[in-house]
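Practice problem: GSCFA domain-containing protein
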Amino acid sequence: MKFYTEVIVKEAANKISHKDGIMLNGSCFTENIGNKFVCGGFETSINPFGILYNPVSICESLNRICTLEYMKEEDLVNVDGFWKSCSHHGSFRSENKEELLMMTNDGIRKNHDFLANAGVVILTLGTAWIYTLKESNRVLGNCHKLNSNLIRRSILTVEQVKENLCKTLDMVRRLNPKIRFIITISPIRHWKEGYRDNMLSKSTLHLGVEAFCKCTASDYFPSYEIVMDQLRDYRFYAEDMLHPNQTAVDYIWDVFSETYISRESIALANDFQRLFAMKQHRAFNPESEGYRNHLRKTETFEKELYERREKMHA
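Answer key — structure tokens:
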């Protein structure tokens, strides 16, 4: 007898391998899964505009990358002496606006080249609630702690969620016709929105994503359902009781891997994770012969793994 509700995920016909560049955009849950790809030796770009939560901002980041639409001075706001981008996470900031523009536009340029050759885009939507500048009607990627008199809070419609995703898919495929989209909804509750508004938000995202996937044949991965239904126990949550803990993230990664990643690449990713652990080792005596042997083994193993990865590109 099973004492839990299992979420059955159908195995994908077309598998991801190490020859596929992976771009991940969206909420902080994106960072959890993205770091798994990085540690597994995949060529990965995680949140080029920083952590974003709503579909409008997530899609805008990809649209700008696709078309090389660079940030301009009018795209910036000054908050407490720091310049911040309306389209980026608050971690993109500088006291010098020219420096901020250079930083953000360099990211757009680099990620344009990455996206043009990538195999997969994974989007994680966090909320359907958006913050808009009243003066310009500009949707903010982050409210940046602006004065509440300057911004308006509203919720997207199901159609708006679908339309933003469809427009972005079209733009990305003009740049890279072979790209594949995988959409997921963050299992993290946005409790600051209130329990009712959080539920309305997640429901809107689910309906919008369902409509998008049906009309574009894009993939939906049920990370939300896995956490809400299969891992519905506080032992799978961090101390804030909202974010999935490492055990939950590891489990979701295992399900994702079994669903989407080829057997050969799963084996290679596991070896890359071993390499990562080997590199984290710190010796009590760095001059000892044992530690020198460890460094030689690590170097040889690393070379072997990169050779195996290169063969997949051939």
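Discussion: The chain has a mean pLDDT of 94. Students who identified this feature from the tokens alone can consider the problem solved.
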